TrEMBL record:
Catalytic reactions on record: ubiquinone-10 + hydrogen sulfide + glutathione + H(+) = S-sulfanylglutathione + ubiquinol-10; ubiquinone-10 + hydrogen sulfide + sulfite + 2 H(+) = ubiquinol-10 + thiosulfate; a quinone + hydrogen sulfide + glutathione + H(+) = S-sulfanylglutathione + a quinol
InterPro entries: FAD/NAD-bd_sf, FAD/NAD-binding_dom, Sulphide_quinone_reductase
Superkingdom as given in the UniProt entry: Eukaryota
Gene3D superfamilies found in the cross-reference section: FAD/NAD(P)-binding domain
Localization: Mitochondrion
Keywords carried by this UniProt record: FAD, Flavoprotein, Mitochondrion, Oxidoreductase, Quinone, Transit peptide
Family indicated by similarity: Belongs to the SQRD family.
GO biological process annotation, one example: sulfide oxidation, using sulfide:quinone oxidoreductase
Source organism (scientific name): Adineta ricciae
Function: Catalyzes the oxidation of hydrogen sulfide with the help of a quinone, such as ubiquinone-10, giving rise to thiosulfate and ultimately to sulfane (molecular sulfur) atoms. Requires an additional electron acceptor; can use sulfite, sulfide or cyanide (in vitro). It is believed the in vivo electron acceptor is glutathione.
This protein's name: Sulfide:quinone oxidoreductase, mitochondrial
Entry keyword annotation includes Transit peptide: yes
Length: 429
């Protein structure tokens, strides 16, 4: 009886299902692509693999950390987000065999495909910092991180109850999603401290692994003025490696002198999590040496496997990892892949690396950074977006979430390039 049962289970688990298109990941990129293909393919032709039953609007985490949104209003059941015309395989992928065109799930079953889109995102790894998780769990009044669905819930409460001392905000030594966020939460914290009359009893430091405050010169210059005006200490090339919560000490490695450590005392520590690609991806032959999917940057097609594409945070696209980058690249991916599926060679615009980072610099203020692969500004509005503006803040806080839920993940938002062209056409006579 027992062995019959086991044979049956094994039969089930080794059963191979086939779909014309398989998408790994139902985050922003996976859903944007699925929604577009769901209009062309039938439910039995397209499958999306994702275990999570909740979809989180992660760009909202900085605002939640500052009490400007509640974490709950950033979440929706995944069942409401996945297009009805798409088969949802609620599991995690744990292996990809692009030579054999299949994906293996956690339970061992295999899903084969004609075409694959990898949209698995990037993994937050607070565990990479010694003592960080223990500190977040056991000392929540001193150590916080909004880079996590679990820990974001505690950030505002802690910032709002802070009564002064040393406040340190970190930026790690790995690629991360939304590289502007670690400083956005700092500027909002600065405003919270001012509102609560504790700013004059507080020193704020931004300890970043990067050599500069921001990678694009135009916005870096504006941000340098802002940190100066806010009296924030910028410490570059420092990477948080350990938190000793009992002693309230954060230990940083000086990246210019590897192996040399510097200890900072803190009363409040905001940790931006180091991030890595998922292991199943990093160990597959789709990955580059760093574990990210190795794509042609203009087309999002894999460099070796022509039936494989990738989008978003899991790729090695040399641009900042944001929802805005997905907005600008998803239609390019879908048009290139459709050409391949249909044996056509219709012209498709090349992805220019467009990405955007609405750098919230305080309550009611925001710099709207937009730029391309070369770090050249690519601004939508016919105004200087490096200036702090209320309009940019409203766009970030109220417009973007609607754009995301109602258009981007539904496959109908291809980024603001059309508006940029329209505005700039209007400006040139
Ligand atoms: C964007 O398209 C987008 O996706 C919905 C975001 O993610 C939340 C953004 O933050 C930004 C800035 C854009 C770009 C859109 C405009 C209108 C500038």
């Amino acid at each position: 009886m027992n062995s019959v049962y086991h044979i049956f289970v094994r039969r089930l688990s080794t059963q191979q299902k086939h779909y014309k298109l398989v998408i790994i990941g139902a985050g922003c990129g996976g859903l944007a692509c699925a929604s577009k293909f769901a209009k062309k393919l039938s439910k039995d032709q397209i499958a999306i693999i994702d275990k999570n039953d909740t979809h989180v609007y992660q760009p909202g985490w900085t605002l939640a950390g500052a009490g400007l949104k509640t974490p709950d209003e950033l979440e929706k059941p995944q069942s409401q987000c996945i297009p009805t015309n798409t088969t949802w395989i609620q599991s995690n992928a744990n292996q990809i065999e692009p030579e054999k065109n299949f994906v293996q799930l956690e339970n061992g079953s295999k899903i084969s495909y004609d075409y694959l889109i990898v949209a698995s995102g990037i993994q937050t790894r607070l565990d990479k910092i010694k003592g960080a998780i223990e500190a977040l769990d056991n000392h929540p009044q001193h150590v916080v991180s909004m880079y996590s669905r679990k820990y974001v819930r505690n950030v505002y409460n802690t910032l709002n109850h802070f009564r002064g001392g040393q406040a340190i905000f970190t930026f790690p030594s790995t690629p991360i999603k939304c590289p502007g966020a670690p400083q956005k939460i700092m500027y909002l914290a600065d405003d919270i401290f001012r509102r609560n009359n504790v700013r004059d009893k507080t020193t704020i430091s931004y300890n970043t692994a990067l050599p500069v405050i921001f990678g694009v010169k135009k916005y870096a210059a504006a941000l340098m003025e802002i940190v100066k005006a806010k009296n924030i200490q910028l410490n570059t090339r420092l990477n948080l490696v350990e938190v000793c919560a009992d002693k309230k000490e954060a230990i940083f490695e000086n990246l210019d002198q590897p192996g040399t450590m510097k200890t900072f005392k803190y009363d409040l520590l905001h940790i931006a999590a180091p991030m890595t690609p998922y292991e199943f991806l990093a160990k597959s032959s789709l990955a580059d040496a760093n574990g990210f999917v190795d794509v042609i940057k203009e087309t999002l097609q894999h460099k070796k496997f022509s039936n494989v594409f990738a989008i978003g945070d899991c790729t090695n696209l040399p641009t900042s990892k944001t929802a805005a980058a997905i907005a600008a690249s998803n239609s390019i991916l879908v048009r290139n892949l459709t050409n391949i599926m249909e044996g056509k060679s219709d012209a498709v615009p090349k992805y220019d690396g467009y990405t955007s980072c609405p750098l919230v610099t305080g309550f009611n203020k925001c710099i709207l950074a937009e730029f391309d692969f070369d770090g050249q500004p690519l601004e939508t509005l016919p105004i200087n977006q490096a200036k702090e503006r209320f309009l940019s803040y409203i766009m970030k806080k109220d417009m973007m979430p609607n754009l995301y839920w109602n258009m981007l993940i539904r496959g109908t938002w291809n980024g603001p390039a059309v508006f940029r062209k329209l505005f700039h056409l209007g400006m040139s006579k």
